[in-house]
């Protein structure tokens, strides 16, 4: 497909103007004196709140402005920080999304990821600027929120968003025919024009937004003085991580400035470069503690989109080239650093987490001790009651029978077996009754069995078997003696 050069070049047509001085017009009067002696009147009326700022700046801010605007080019050192502040205000007003902003949409997060993955392919094919991609994704997010977009018209909406963004950002944007062809003729020119009107109306014709790539460039430019040799690699890593956040449904709700700052932070950590917290906090607007907490959310998406077996590979292929430094292929060491970032916390975070865990543990232990204490005393009281009642009734019943000493011991042992074998008291009583009836042929089972059965029927509880088993142990020891103890 024929494609004109899309790179920005403000000097593209200067070669056609000829060489030599411009002809002087007779209508122009000769200006006497040096040009700097008379300033334009409009400049004298421009008053900014930062005219006296250079005298009030600290050394860190001077270093940032010096890196962004070398030698005070074009006088922009007065407005550098104002532009950054305005970008932060604008992104908070125009680009704020909730974490569950896709919950009530007609499209699934997976469908959005597939579409943006296709954006990367079209973006590379037309060699468009990074700003065009940023604006395309922003328009798509805005359209799916404010228009009835579903699976049937999602591709039409996406390609129209890129068409609008390219006309807004590119010097030589692709034509509408180019976009129709790249979509495989799935859309028509009339459909794109109609959709373009709907998207612009839904966005309020507001296309000026702070771009993610500009925040990344700001951080890279500031770091260039400290890490000159590695600046290009860090910049490519940060761009890759930032575009992972654009496509991933778990990170796309974050503000561009935060995405850029976290991407720069992770890139520096992976490349084993020192992080100047004072300088970067002033440059990016976020301190290291906040970036460290946010970086943990980036680890899983980064590992997902760098996986060679992932079903969507356009982003990985884009940065897995020699021009991009093959930053989409992570080494084993870089993989380990990412895993460490996922587990890392700040010193304050560690202390707070430990205090919370300790308090939670103490509360659980105290509750358990309280419950166990109440239950323990309840069991002890019931056990004492059962021991007294069981020993009294059982021994009294055996004493009243006409059994010999050996038969009395057998009766006690039988009761012990019943208590150990059965978890239900009534079953134990039935077993004793049947066993006594079989052994002694109905001579006295009505005495012992009835007494024991009546006794256990009064102590039906979840813990009865535990107590009865304890009593059985006591009776077992008693059965080994020559004579049974007297009833208490």
From TrEMBL:
<dbReference type="GO" id="GO:0005874">
    <property type="term" value="C:microtubule"/>
</dbReference>
<dbReference type="Pfam" id="PF00134">
    <property type="entry name" value="Cyclin_N"/>
</dbReference>
<keyword id="KW-0493">Microtubule</keyword>
<keyword id="KW-0132">Cell division</keyword>
<feature type="domain" description="Cyclin-like">
    <location>
        <begin position="117"/>
        <end position="201"/>
    </location>
</feature>
<keyword id="KW-0131">Cell cycle</keyword>
<dbReference type="InterPro" id="IPR006671">
    <property type="entry name" value="Cyclin_N"/>
</dbReference>
<keyword id="KW-0963">Cytoplasm</keyword>
<dbReference type="InterPro" id="IPR004367">
    <property type="entry name" value="Cyclin_C-dom"/>
</dbReference>
<dbReference type="GO" id="GO:0051301">
    <property type="term" value="P:cell division"/>
</dbReference>
<keyword id="KW-0813">Transport</keyword>
<dbReference type="InterPro" id="IPR037177">
    <property type="entry name" value="DLC_sf"/>
</dbReference>
<keyword id="KW-0206">Cytoskeleton</keyword>
<keyword id="KW-0509">mRNA transport</keyword>
<dbReference type="GO" id="GO:0030286">
    <property type="term" value="C:dynein complex"/>
</dbReference>
<keyword id="KW-0472">Membrane</keyword>
<keyword id="KW-1133">Transmembrane helix</keyword>
<dbReference type="Pfam" id="PF02984">
    <property type="entry name" value="Cyclin_C"/>
</dbReference>
<dbReference type="InterPro" id="IPR039361">
    <property type="entry name" value="Cyclin"/>
</dbReference>
<keyword id="KW-0653">Protein transport</keyword>
<dbReference type="GO" id="GO:0051028">
    <property type="term" value="P:mRNA transport"/>
</dbReference>
<dbReference type="InterPro" id="IPR013763">
    <property type="entry name" value="Cyclin-like_dom"/>
</dbReference>
<dbReference type="GO" id="GO:0005634">
    <property type="term" value="C:nucleus"/>
</dbReference>
<dbReference type="GO" id="GO:0015031">
    <property type="term" value="P:protein transport"/>
</dbReference>
<dbReference type="GO" id="GO:0007017">
    <property type="term" value="P:microtubule-based process"/>
</dbReference>
<protein>
    <recommendedName>
        <fullName>Dynein light chain 1, cytoplasmic</fullName>
    </recommendedName>
</protein>
<feature type="transmembrane region" description="Helical">
    <location>
        <begin position="355"/>
        <end position="377"/>
    </location>
</feature>
<keyword id="KW-0812">Transmembrane</keyword>
<feature type="domain" description="Cyclin-like">
    <location>
        <begin position="214"/>
        <end position="300"/>
    </location>
</feature>
<dbReference type="InterPro" id="IPR001372">
    <property type="entry name" value="Dynein_light_chain_typ-1/2"/>
</dbReference>
<comment type="similarity">
    <text>Belongs to the cyclin family.</text>
</comment>
<keyword id="KW-0195">Cyclin</keyword>
<keyword id="KW-0539">Nucleus</keyword>
<feature type="domain" description="Cyclin C-terminal">
    <location>
        <begin position="210"/>
        <end position="333"/>
    </location>
</feature>
<dbReference type="Pfam" id="PF01221">
    <property type="entry name" value="Dynein_light"/>
</dbReference>
<dbReference type="InterPro" id="IPR036915">
    <property type="entry name" value="Cyclin-like_sf"/>
</dbReference>
């Amino acid at each position: 497909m024929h494609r004109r050069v899309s790179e920005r070049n403000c000097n593209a047509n200067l070669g056609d103007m000829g060489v030599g001085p411009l002809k002087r017009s007779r209508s122009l009067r000769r200006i006497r004196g040096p040009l700097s002696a008379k300033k334009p009147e409009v400049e004298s009326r421009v008053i900014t709140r930062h005219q006296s700022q250079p005298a009030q700046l600290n050394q860190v801010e001077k270093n940032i402005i010096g890196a962004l605007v070398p030698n005070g080019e074009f006088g922009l050192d007065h407005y550098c920080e104002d532009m950054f502040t305005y970008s932060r205000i604008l992104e908070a007003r125009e680009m704020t999304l909730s974490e569950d902003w896709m919950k009530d949409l007609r499209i699934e997060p997976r469908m959005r990821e597939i579409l943006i993955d296709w954006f990367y392919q079209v973006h590379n094919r037309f060699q468009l600027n990074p700003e065009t991609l940023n604006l395309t994704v922003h328009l798509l997010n805005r359209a799916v929120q404010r228009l009835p977009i579903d699976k049937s018209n999602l591709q039409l909406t996406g390609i129209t968003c890129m068409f609008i963004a390219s006309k807004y950002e590119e010097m030589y944007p692709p034509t509408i025919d180019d976009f129709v062809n790249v979509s495989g003729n799935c859309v028509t020119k009339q459909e794109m024009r109609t959709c373009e009107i709907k998207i612009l109306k839904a966005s309020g014709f507001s296309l000026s937004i702070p771009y993610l790539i500009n925040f990344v460039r700001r951080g890279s430019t500031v770091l260039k003085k400290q890490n000159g040799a590695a600046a290009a690699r860090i910049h490519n890593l940060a761009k890759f991580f930032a575009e992972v956040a654009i496509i991933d449904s778990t990170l796309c709700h974050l503000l561009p400035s935060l995405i850029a700052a976290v991407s720069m932070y992770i890139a520096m950590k992976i490349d084993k470069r020192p992080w100047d917290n004072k300088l970067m906090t002033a440059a990016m607007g976020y301190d290291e503690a906040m970036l460290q907490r946010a970086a943990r959310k980036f680890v899983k998406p980064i590992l997902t989109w760098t996986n060679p077996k992932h079903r969507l590979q356009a982003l990985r292929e884009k940065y897995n080239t020699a021009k991009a430094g093959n930053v989409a292929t992570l080494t084993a060491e870089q993989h380990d650093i990412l895993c460490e970032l996922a587990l890392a916390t700040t010193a304050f975070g560690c202390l707070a987490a430990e205090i919370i865990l300790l308090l939670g543990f103490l509360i659980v232990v105290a509750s358990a001790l309280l419950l166990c204490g109440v239950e323990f005393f309840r069991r002890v009281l019931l056990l004492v009651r059962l021991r007294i009642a069981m020993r009294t009734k059982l021994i009294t019943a055996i004493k009243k029978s006409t059994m010999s000493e050996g038969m009395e011991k057998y009766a006690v042992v039988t009761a012990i077996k019943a208590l150990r074998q059965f978890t239900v008291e009534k079953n134990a009583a039935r077993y004793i009754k049947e066993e006594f009836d079989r052994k002694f042929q109905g001579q006295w089972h009505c005495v012992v069995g009835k007494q024991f059965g009546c006794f256990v029927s009064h102590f039906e509880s979840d813990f009865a078997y535990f107590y009865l088993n304890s009593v059985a142990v006591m009776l077992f020891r008693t059965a080994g003696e020559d004579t049974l103890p007297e009833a208490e």
